[in-house]
Amino acid sequence: MKQGLPSISRNKSLLLLLLYLCININRVQAQEQPRPYQSIFGEKSTEWNVMSGYCDAVGTMTLETSDTTVINDKEYVVVSGNSENPFSSRNEDFLREDTSTGRVWAYDERSNTELLLMDMTLEPGDKFMLYQWDLTPVEAIVSEVYYENNLKHIRFMQQDAWIVICAGLDVPLEFIEGIGPNTGFFHYQNFFQGIINSYVLCHFKDGERVYTGEKSGGACYITQTSITDDAKATAVEVYPNPAADDVRVTFNNSRQERVELVLLDVLSRPVQRLSGSGSEFQLRLQTEPSGVYFYRLRLNNRQIASGKIIKK
User: Fold this and answer.
1) Is the whole model's pTM more than 0.85, yes or no?
2) Regarding the domain with residue range 229-311, which homologous superfamily does it belong to in the CATH classification?
3) How many Å apart are CA 69 and CA 145, to the nearest integer?
4) Of the candidates 161, 229, 171, which has an alpha carbon nearest to the alpha carbon of residue 51?
5) Per-residue pLDDT for the chain (312 aa), expressed as one digit of tens each?
6) What residue ranges of the chain are covered by domains with CATH 2.60.40.380?
7) Residue from 307, 224, 296 nearest 261 by CA
């Protein structure tokens, strides 16, 4: 009996060692397992209030989740848009996400492909491919990563992606965990030459406001537009838009009143100024750099219309 005691003791020691190793292996694996990122969607409902436009011609679009659908064997959440902005006309879009990486994709009907719109695994110095309105890829570099309210924020270099709505609202693009890009998910539809004209005012999950844009002033709806009854009466049309050369601006001016058309760049600097008493102006863009421009149409010193023109 005495000769068997050392063997029992060794077995106990071996069992204790194995137990210790198992506990610590599980602990290390738990530490190495990355936490899932917070979902951009609520359990029952999700809403984004996105302002878009420029200065005195801005409106707020409400984007709401409604259902799910399968496209090309992938399940997407349907996002429906209700716009108060006369320069936006969204109906339905499609998003899907992977919370293990914080990646979000949108299905693009034009190309029948999906576009990666957000990736929360990025770190400073990493590169991310953004898409312009014509789906041309543009490289953006992460300048900073920081945490606010325990949520990860990824900020891009300002020269790569710059949100410009008007004076006082010009900030770099950010990805925000659980919220999305601070431009809204469909910024690529009005992104050109590094300029984006949309900004998330508020984000709601299951009826609760979970995010308010820093530059929103606490407001979830901002609408300021120079489109009036005069504009409807003058039936303003701008075409082609986007354009490579000339752009025609036509309107009803049966009384032959004095009309002025001003074209401005993204910094609100006048580029062209035309005036007369006719019913059509022609903007010559051949010598202007490619980019986003804005027009303002005034009738008898009353601004009746404004909007965006893209020079290819």
Assistant:
1) no
2) Purple acid phosphatase-like, N-terminal (2.60.40.380)
3) 33
4) 171
5) 445 555 556 666 666 666 666 665 555 444 445 679 999 999 999 999 998 877 666 778 889 998 999 999 999 999 987 544 333 444 678 999 999 999 999 998 888 999 999 999 999 999 999 998 788 899 999 999 999 999 999 999 987 787 777 656 778 999 999 999 999 988 777 777 778 888 999 999 998 999 999 888 888 887 665 444 444 445 678 888 888 899 999 888 878 888 889 898 876 678 899 999 988 999 999 999 888 888 888 877 676 777 788 888
6) 229-311
7) 296
- The type of residue at 148 is E
Residues 6+ apart with CB under 8 A from 103: 97, 116, 118, 119, 120, 121
- Which amino acid type is present at position 244? A
Residues written for the chain? 312
Q: What tokens were used for 76?
A: 């997407």
How many Cα atoms are found within 13 Å in the side-chain-facing hemisphere of 154? Answer: 24
DSSP-derived letter for residue 243 is B
